[in-house]
Amino acid sequence: MFEIFGTPYADSKQLPLASGPGPIVIIIAGYLLVVFKAGRKFMEYREPYNLRGALKCYNIFQICYNIMMLLPGVYFLFVFRPYDFRCMTVLPQDHPLKNWERCISYAYYINKIVDLLDTVFCVLRKKFMQITFLHVFHHVLMPSAGYLIIRFQGYGGHLFFLCSFNVVVHVFMYGYYYSAIEGKTVKWKRYLTIMQMAQFVLMFGHCAFTAMQRDCKASQGILFLVSFSTAIMFIMFANFYFQCYMKPKEKEI
Fold first, then answer.
1. pLDDT tens, N- to C-terminus, the chain (253 residues)
2. Which of 26, 38, 80, 152 is deepest in the core (most CB within 10 A)?
3. pTM, whole model, 2 decimals?
4. Cα–Cα distance measured from residue 217 to residue 210, given in angstroms and rounded to the nearest whole number
5. Taking each helix axis from N to C terminus, what angle separates 220-241 and 189-211, rounded to the nearest 10 degrees?
6. CA 204 to CA 227: how far, in whole Å?
7. Residue 176 belongs to what H/E stretch?
8. Residue 197: enclosing H or E segment and its boundaries?
9. Looking at the annotation, which residues are catalytic?
10. Alpha-carbon distance values, 112 to 38, 116, 147, 148, 199 (Å)
């Protein structure tokens, strides 16, 4: 079973934090340690930190970062048109557009690691109620699955298109966070959850559509992994939506 880890990397170029399991394992382990043990111990007798300035800068950075992935990504997909949308496979190593595919996909992977700071900020602000199972599961899943996909499939392909949905959602999400910090009244929090659920439906649907193409050589393992992950995430976000916006509120006695 473990012989699979002895296979060569799918991509010939080894980039930082994606050249072996060690870095991502250490990052995820450190993240979980901070979130559930060390961070809470550190904050036990301390007042919550006022991170308003840091959060504003972080949210602006995330908005800009995601836009900088989205624009070249859209250009790559719809101007260069390197893929057949019925069957999107990773470009060959010698393809003239390979560096575009690799760089944008790698930037997305790094951003999933940067996203872990969301939870660290919650710990430093003692917002422990926000650190739900859904929150932690989502943040652990994305970089972990990202590394495995890079390791065994390579950069881009079918997931390049799917991740574009996620980038769009994150632009709106961090825009909402920034507006909330500024103290502006924003009434579209529930619509962010709907957008999250919509992206999972689109991802699942595109995976199913790709799997139905008889001559498609897209990795069936990746299609199953993404389909399973998006189904789980949809169920969890749907439950969150029901609990927050549809479940009748209990009247206080």
1. 556 666 788 888 889 999 888 999 999 999 999 999 999 999 999 999 999 999 999 999 999 999 999 999 999 999 999 998 888 999 999 999 999 999 999 999 999 999 999 999 999 999 999 899 989 999 999 999 999 899 988 999 888 888 888 999 999 999 988 988 887 766 777 888 899 899 999 999 999 999 898 888 888 888 888 898 889 989 988 988 888 887 766 554 4
2. 152
3. 0.91
4. 10
5. 150
6. 5
7. helix 158-181
8. helix 189-211
9. 138
10. 22, 7, 10, 13, 17
Q: How far is CA 198 from the centre of its chain?
A: 15
CA–CA distance, 194 with 203 (Å, rounded to integer): 14
Output b/e per residue, 58-76; b: 16+ Cβ within 10 A. Answer: bbeebbebbeebbeebeeb
Within 10 A of 163 (CB to CB), how many other CB atoms are there?
24
Structure tokens at 253: 């006695």
Strands (E), the chain: none
**CA–CA gap between residue 50 and residue 145 (Å, rounded):** 33
Residue type, 138: H
Smallest Cα–Cα separation from 21: which of 35, 42, 3, 5?
Answer: 5
State the burial class of residue 162 (Cβ atoms within 10 Å of its Cβ: 0-12, 13-18, 19+). Answer: buried
Q: Token digits for 144?
A: 């972990």
Q: Residue 18's Cα: distance from chain center in Å?
A: 16
- The encoded tokens of residue 120 equal 């660290």
Q: Are 208 and 227 in contact (CB under 8 A)?
A: yes
SS3 87: strand
| Residue 62 near residue 174, CB atoms below 8 Å | yes
CA–CA distance, 2 with 109 (Å, rounded to integer): 24
